Give the backbone structure.
Amino acid sequence: MKINTVNLTLKTDKTVVEGANKVRGYIGNTFKDYPLLHNHYGNDNHLLTYPLVQYKIINGDVVILGIEEGGDVLKEISSDLNIFKLNKEYKVTEKILSEKEVDVKPSSEEKHYKFVTPWLGLNQKNYSKYNELYGWKDKKNFLNNILVGNLLSMSKGLGIIVNKRLHVKSHFEIKQVKYKSVIFNGFVGEFKVHYDIPDFFGLGKGVSHGFGTVCEIK
């Protein structure tokens, strides 16, 4: 399935040291009339779908991914993004906006990916199950199945039909991260799967906050 994306990279006068959640909060508050930017409507009703605007910090730069309507919103507000007031104040010195159509679908070819930001694969429920597993093979299979579930959830949120069984091969390492003021065990590393995932798409929990960002290894 072809999907329109907009990737907006914002270079600033100094390296951004705060997390992507801070950028999300600032932009969401600055442009409150665009629900896709903060992923909820009034009365704290959240948009229960795959986030169409995703914020990331990559190598100290702000990178914002817009998918379909989310891309249209990014193009509308990009000219007004000239400063970030986070814990520090950052001035935007360069804006790089690229728009392209990408494939998101199961693939006949096995693709190789890495997480460029930690993947939050475990929630409260499956964290307990994960800790009850003893052998590393069991834990690895458990994580692989969760990742398949994340891919299926993304597909469903984007209206993509998956008509084949997915299998993941992976090598992950634990990296502790803070998400919504709670310490989580995140994972970094690489995986292979028969699925076309565009660069900078996110998987798992906290996607709109910058977690689980995927890039292909070519």
Summary: The first strand starts at residue 2 and ends at 12.
